[in-house]
Give the backbone structure.
Amino acid sequence: MKATALAHPNIALAKYWGKRGDGHNLPAVPSLSVTLAGMRTRTTVEFVEGLAADELRLQGAVAAVGRVADLLDRVRRMAGVPLRARVDSTNDFPTSSGLASSASAFAALALAATRAAGLSLEPAALSDLARRSSVSSARSVFGGFVALRAGRAGDDALSAEVVAAADHLDLRVVVAVTHEGSKAVGSSEGMRHTVLTSPYFAAWVAHAPSLYARLREALLRGDLEALGVAAEESALAMHASAIAAAPGLLYWSSATVAALEQVRALRARGLAAWATIDAGPHVKVLTTSSDEPRVIAAMEQVPGVLRTIATRPGDGARLDEDPAA
Ligand code: PMV
């Protein structure tokens, strides 16, 4: 009744921002991401006889079970297991700061919890289970380049699917970390606020599918430049919809803007460099293996960039057979 799973965060190249209004945690727009080796979550779930309530430890400290208990409840119903669980989860990167920790967290939790309960789900079912807790985590179940279509009226299940393998493109993602703490407004809350108050949300929903299609085609034909251009547009359009909310939702700091300017300066010098930004102040730079060292050196020069994390396309969620190692 115990299992440990590993999962990587993913970064959306074509962003998801905003849920459909039907309460099923379905995305309003399609998204396409890359799962990132170089950062990981490790989660152990143990169903324990006699435990009165689910218990969660994050980075070794006791934390509120909240959305974790909802996922565990679903697993208990599927498996017919009545027991409460002990969950222990650690990230080797900043938590809840816009580095997509909910994606790796819920992908690892879905896999560890189902295995601990004696279930062996197909990846699509695992992705759907994770998606019900965190939309982006549906994508981290898979490795490489992963798509999640928009939800439709009447959808019961919705799973992500692989578009291309991790080695399909010579891509590196340099994360320029600008802040080590938690972000002020979580992505679910930020989306809700954008959906309810931003006059640009409808424009985002109308535009996002064509950005997604362009990016997907660029990926399939191996055109990194077209992919990078579309990814930067997607991130800026998503943030524009949030910034236009009332009051405006600005995830950026001065370091974010400085990092974005640096990426554009690198591009003007002929390097492969395109920026993407999630619901936090960090800038992630898409580049190639040959330009990566220069991109890292340049991003570390930017005022307010604390450090960089070098990542590359990686594997999906998997069991950790040797958690002590
Ligand atoms: O599913 P969540 O709550 O982790 O939201 C993810 C939102 C973004 O990271 C900004 C975009 C995305 O598609 O991952």
Remarks:
- The chain has nine helices and 14 strands.
